[in-house]
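Q: My labmate handed me this sequence with no annotations at all. I'd like to see what the chain might look like in three dimensions before we decide whether it's worth expressing. Could you predict it?
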Amino acid sequence: MKKSLIIYLFLSLSMFAFSKKAPISTSCLQTEMRVNPKGLDCITPRLSWEISSEARDVQQLCYHVLVSSSLDKLNQDEGDLWDSGLVTSNQSVYIPYGGQALASRMKCYWKVKVKTNQGTTSWSEPSNWEMGLMHPTDWQALWIGRSFPADKLVGKTSVPARYVRKSFYLKTKKVQKATLYVSGLGFYEAFLNSQKLGDQVLAPTPTDYSKSVKYNTFDVTGNLSGDENVIGVVLGNGRYSTMRMPGVRHFGLPCLLAQLEVVYEDGDRDLIATDTSWKITADGPILANSEFDGEAYDARKEMPGWNTSGFDDQSWLQAELVTAPGGRMEAQLNRNIKIMDTVKPIALNELGNGAYVLDMGQNMVGWLRMQVKGERGDQVKLRFAELLQKDGTLYTANLRSADCTDTYIMKGTSPETWEPTFTYHGFRYVELTGFREKPSLADFEGQVIYDEMELTGKWVTSDTLLNRIYQNSYWGIRSNYRGMPTDCPQRDERMGWLGDRAVGSQGESYMFNNHLLYAKWLDDIEQAQKEGGAVPDVAPNYWDVCTDNMTWPGAYLIIANMLYEQFGDLAPIVKHYDSMKKWMYYMKDKYMVDHIMTKDNFGDWCMPPESPELIHSKDPSRITEAAVLGTTFYYHLSGLMSRFATLVGHAQDADAFQQEALAVKDAFNTKYFHADAGYYGNNTVTANILSLRFGMVPEQYQQAVFANIVEKTMKDFNGHVSTGLVGIQQLMRGLSDYGRSDLAYQIATNRTYPSWGYMVDKGATTIWELWNGDTADPAMNSANHVMLLGDLIVWNYGYLAGINNTPGSVGFKHITLKPYPVKGLGSVKASFRSVHGEIKSDWRKEQGHFLWNITVPCNTSAKVYVPVTDAKMDRKEQRLLEKEGAKFVGVENRYAVFDFPSGSYSLKTRYAE
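A: Here is what I predict for the chain of 913 residues:
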């Protein structure tokens, strides 16, 4: 008997995301898609669904989509906006909406029916989306704000939060719908009749506000009152009003754009929009707020009822019209930041003189929620740090100029509970001062904040150190999701450095559904591009760092390719193709000499130096030449551009980039390859691994070059990593690809310096910025970076667990399951929720056998590489797999290769290491 199929719907827009499973068959997921489904301003949303069934070999044959203007029409199977008809296709992701033109504010309801080789589903449960304000003329609101005497704009700046309110009455009619569109810069919290709207924090997402400004949308129909209504908004500084140091961009003082649209059941409308009739004050409890320095809050200045009716705002000032930020108003597609987790402290140590240090037990990002007792006017201070000095006091040298301090002044109504609103901290330890008596652990809770996104990957092994490193990676990655991927969360930097996230973004994509975040970041990168074509090293360019690298800006192309490979989304490549091409030609025209890319600025950043107190090596034998880095990357990126050109239909460009790549390869080998010795440049592991992984090494010399990588690693570095940020992006996969997974495993599980295990044994609960982060210059000792992870997480999932796209496939439509068992590792259990469904690989070695449980999602298939002994497979074992529906392909090295249809399978083969 055929088992039932379940369909889950997703609204993709220009990207893909997941929603939660419905509990019953043939029902859809909320079309929440991890963006706000209200306020979409893309003209062609893309629709996706996931088919789930316990049956094997489920393949979609056709689909039928209906999109309606009302739920009633959809329930009557009337697709008045779009009826796709029965479409013969196995595509279930990124189906472009093909119906009537969509207008601002339009609400669309949709469902899908799918025909498979196992039967036809019933219609899915409905889902919906709502269009936002798609045209500038839709905005009637004006940007408002004003300056205040309390603003301190010189020296150590201090700008208090703004409190803005608008009281209004509605017509005595029944409200059909009310929608609030809002953007408060830098950050905002919005209320309607005292009720906070949404659960986001630190909204909206950061951008270059002169290029784009994001707005959020809220359905507030249920928040309205039949009497007086009040909109209240608190404005914080964020990245809009940074005002810290020379070189950091400052856009202006906090400002607000808000528009409430009310539609009555009789069709009549009301509009309440920001203008000079709104009231504003800076005389509220948030005295100062800064992402870097913390928040000062005086509870004595609280204004009970300020965001409700009946409040006396006579002392408040009229808002003033202010200059608009300049950027285009856009609906925010990537999710906002929210409180995603909580951490309970594990210890409270007394320092003397009324000071205590709270230990959270985990380096985290967010803030501290506390309960405190005292008298009116008592001032409590919270100072945050990642590390302690030997005497138990905070280590703050690595915070540089960031104060990282919250101050709370009590109103005298003990106990009082407080958490900040417009700041965050990277910390494990908190120094507490100003308490009248020793607090208890129960008085504190760490609230972990980062971009709301699904946890899509799980990974655990029999090796406890590997598991600890993975957990450190998990904490480090989510610590640095802040509406953009940042380098660090604690010091006076916190910038979107491109080089930190190139290949690392792919590893992250196994763990988190980071699609929306990285698609948004590509927009930031293009908006930061210079008129002549240069791409800076930081985006958004709050620091104007543009050094004309190949390696750092190369992340632009690498991440676009990642979104295509991992999520199957071509849209970012289409959108940014011209910009990426412009950058490549800019670099070629300015720095290419005889097909050698002479320019790279940062080198193999933070490779292990020869002395523990150094940040950067001064030993020429360890340093990879800039032109080697620049040329290998130019070659690799030319190959990507040739692929992109083909995908977007520019055949001439594709050929031109391919020809350029061939010329670069020839010139590079002529200048830098020592054929007699089998190495490149000065024989660093980085020079050799990049040349090998990027395909620049002539085939007959590949083993010789790889032998030098192994010899250099073993002889000169005693089996340890010798690469920095650039080389580590290719190291682990490169070792496994050429047969030395054992060496990769050794590097992954080393406990002595330099290694990830060394960090663990030194007490790290995240990943350090430096391999020698405990000994180098304190000013560059971030304890929460991810750049040195390189391709470790990709290796964890793609090699140890063996979950990969099959070459030529994207979005895991066709999967390669090929684990790389290594001696000493007894088991790996991993799962990854791809755009087509959950993939599982769970293997263990047991009594001379390899036992492997795998899951291939519906509407996909897999090429499965089963580890065997001595390149042989027992015929009986082969027949058992074929009986389950697998098709035997052949034997490759020590793998028996099968084609598997979708389904879950338990494999068992004889296996000896």
